[in-house]
Amino acid sequence: MLVPDEKITTWIDISGDPIDRKWRAIQRHVTQIAMDSGFMVFGEEGWKEHWAKEAYILRESSVETDKPEDDLFAGLT
pLDDT at position 1, please? Predict the structure, then answer.
């Protein structure tokens, strides 16, 4: 959100089951995020449309990697 796109090294597709589970988990933890917050007002369909990918920034690695990544565990045995 506050990081320029060019700093992001990894995009993970969480569409389907992962985003469904994430949505249900967030709803069960109302002490962490209120249902009327800016993140929740879009509803489940809004989440599926706008947050089906998660972004990560690789800070360091002990294995060789190609960027952009799409697997946080690539190269690990």
Answer: 64
Whether pTM exceeds 0.90: no
Residue 56 phi, psi dihedral angles, 5° rounding: -135, 155
Give pLDDT tens digits for 33-57.
888 888 788 888 988 888 899 999 9
What letter would DSSP give residue 10? E
Q: Token digits for 41?
A: 């007002």
Q: Burial letters for 40-77: b for 16+ Cβ neighbours within 10 Å, e otherwise?
A: beeeeeebbeeeeeeeeeeeeeeeeeeeebeeeeeeee
Cβ atoms 15, 75 nearer than 8 A: no
